[in-house]
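Record type: ASSEMBLY
Status: queued
Input:
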Amino acid sequence: MASYGTSDFKKGLKVQLDGEPYLIVDLDFMKPGKGQAVYRIKVKNMISGRVLDKSYRSGDSIDGADVEDKEMQFLYKDGINYHFMDGESFEQFELTPAQVGDSGKWLVEEMQCEIVFYNGSPITCSPPNHVDLKVTYTEPGAKGNSTGNVQKPATVSTGAELMVPVFINLDDTVRIDTRTGEYVERVTKS
Amino acid sequence: MPGDTIPDDAIPDDAIPGMAMLRARARLLSSAREFFAARAVLEVDTPILGDGLVVESHIDPIPCQVRSGSGAPLPRHLLTSPEGPMKRLLAAGSGPIYQFAHAFRDGEQGRRHATEFTMLEWYRPGFDHHELMAEVEALVQTLVPRVAKSTFTRRTYREVFIEGAGIDPFATSLPELRATCERLDVPTPPNFEQGSLDDALDLLLVSYIEPTLGTPVPTFVHEYPASQAALAQVHTSDEGHAVAQRFELYIDGLELVNGYHELADAEEQRLRFEQANRDREASGRSPLPIDELLIASLQNGFPACAGVALGFDRLLMVATEAKHIDDVRCS
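Status: finished
Output:
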């Protein structure tokens, strides 16, 4: 299994702690003037969602999480759970809303997602970093207000809401960064 | 008016990204130079590429290979501070000197750290560390308007541990420090017990005590344990502990300066460099070449003096209320 030193630490790294898989969600480098550096990380349990603080010194290392990432296609939501299919084996898997988390609001049918497996079972899913979705509701923008950082709320085809620039119209397709939930650019104009 | 030499109107602040920060830095540099000129401290410019080093246990220089005029390889390092070359000038009789120098520390990167940064370092023959603290206070008051009217406080290392964490750093142990970390919710590294007492004190300091230092007024911390003396003189405190004549300044939890009443004993200096190299080897890092010119200049008679290094980017962070060191530096 991979082992990571403090110099490998970064947000998004999956590590194994106390026998369970964790995701690094934040890190801080601390060092007193003449003293030893301390690498402080915030990690999230990929099963329970619990967040912990940990400290390491240079020379310390952590094992990589004992997980497997698989590309899968999102099929549908059955009213409660989310269904995905392995494109090679055609095997289907189900994830609960808690496991899908915030990612759920960006999922559209046939989208390729990364599903993380632990002990043979799916535990979380990540949509692509960028998704293109159609605007299904937004107020018309005011004329002459198309420059600068003025934004307005919009709803997209999955039902998710976000802030978009005032020049975006109904039926435009917009690109969204799923990691931040923020508008990136307009892809097609209605 | 300090900093009046900065052309304010030539180019508007929003002309290019970062223009306002460039101007803020220029104003701070200009004001600092006026401060030292008024006090007859000479600006110097010493090499940052060196062969011998001020060896420290936890500070890594950046090694680099240069070639002589005949093409022969010469191993060199980008210096971690201009301390060695500046002390050689002092030994030669330069009198009071200051320098803005780029300094390099391998592996240091974060919200408050950059591998390459700007250091303001100065030396005052005839000063002790208390007189130098007073000068640091005057400089920072001149450069940072929001603390101009504050009276900086002075706390001993022992006081900040007793007040901040409820323990006496001169009468503690690893088990007590572990229990203190647990009580205060400070996570401990896996090999806590294999580290030294100073490593454990450092952990508690940076993780828990530091964020509270320098609020609401800037705070000097002094009388560090003798084991953390580095290049400072050691004496016995009023409470009977061996303490280093070393100080640091904090503003809003940010460490800004480190100063010493400078060690002038060549033999003692060599022993500390050698100890630092043993510490480095014990933690699996390579030993470093000692600055022999510095040792020689101490042997030839070094003036009694105090010296201090100020993290200039961090001072700019304080002055502009920036949250990340990258926000105040050119990329």
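Annotation: The interface with chain B takes residues 7, 28-38, 40, 52-60 of chain A (CB under 8 Å).
Annotation: Chain A has one helix and 16 strands.
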